[in-house]
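Submission sheet (multi-component)
Chains listed below:
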Amino acid sequence: MTVTPVIRAVGLVKIYQTGGLPVPAVRGVDLVVEPGEFVAIMGPSGSGKSTFVHMLGGLETRTSGEIWLDGKRADTLSESGWAVLRRQKVGFVFQFFNLVANMTVADNVELPALLGGATPRHARERREYLLAELGLEERAGAAPGQLSGGEQQRVALARALANHPRLLLADEPTGNLDSRNTRDVLKLLGKVHRQGQTIVLVTHDARVASMADRVVSLLDGQIVDDAPIARLQRRPAGTAGDIVELHG
Amino acid sequence: MRLPLLALLAKEPAHGYELKQALEVTFGSAYPSPNIGQIYVTLGRLEKDGFVRAVDVEQSNRPNKKVYYLTAAGREALEAWVDEPTEGPRVRDEFFMKLVLAPLTGIADRMALVNRQRRHYLSLMRDLDELAERTDPGNRVARLLIEGAMLHLQADLDWLERCQEDLT
Ligand SMILES: Nc1ncnc2c1ncn2[C@@H]1O[C@H](COP(=O)(O)OP(=O)(O)O)[C@@H](O)[C@H]1O
Ligand SMILES: [Mg+2]
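Outcome: structure written.
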């Protein structure tokens, strides 16, 4: 029996056409992501990473190619069709957060769960859990505008996970965080991944990428590498220090 | 290892095994712990150079042990070390040599080299993360060493990306 992939993208192309010359941002990308996989997408700035994950989440239309989410053809959906699919299946962490400004942090996080059909009590419990994991329980009553960039980014992650989405898509979710906050985010990502969460995440941060099962590298809108991150030969305990000498 | 040993001896005289333990306690799992043979070889050299001297201390029921202490010349060498600025890291990257030279010979393709190296760096990072997990949170020295290694690795990865953009 074959498992249905969470994502199947076939020959995905995006050409931006804004006024002047067409800009080919994504040029024929194929990607299959199995349930429970954690895939890191890396590549230089301008290589098409954001465009690619936005297309996977239906936040940007594709020029050509196919997108299948959870076995269902998605690229042909209307905007409202995408909105329903996202609400049911996709949690998205934007590079620039996109929190609802006139709602509290707590309401921002609970909203997707409520829209997804969770009871108010479940939505509240999930929100309390996620905010606590990210060190934000004290900020539940604040408005997004009162938070630092790093806090808003963590709220955005909590919101994306509120509804136990089939797929978590994240665009540089630690781009604005210091190393301590990055650690909280890493811990939470590790935890949900171990619980079976499928994750596709764009990052420059080697610590974040090193948690993935697989790394996909983009260059000029094309995949130039797609392979698992190998486990190093297990060293006997207490001798791992030689890495430090090597690189320190 | 010469100067770290001088620094430890500046605090108090010690025998070889005590020096090994002091290094281990200070740096924790983040640092390769030296073997006792290495320490005695280094102490022997320092003694020959006049930086340390050893006295035999009698022990009941056991062979005498040598306790080392710092000489005036040793203290001067240590002070000179502390006072002089420390070199920053230079790029002496073996991978970069491969990347530049291997394609000229037709042995390897730059894109493949970069891709493999990226995944290797990520494996190393994973190892460092696991090391950090195992490290006593109270050992600030060990934690800082690991954090330093991670920052270096991130810089290596960023540089690799630049190489991929410009050389492939
Ligand atoms: N809305 C847009 N209109 C026109 N060009 C765009 C737009 N968004 C991105 N691009 C261009 O597409 C390319 C890929 O951008 P992007 O997907 O943001 O890359 P990355 O996330 O890897 O930095 C870049 O050349 C960028 O300038
Ligand atoms: Mg981007």
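Remark: Chain B has two domains: 2-83, 94-167.
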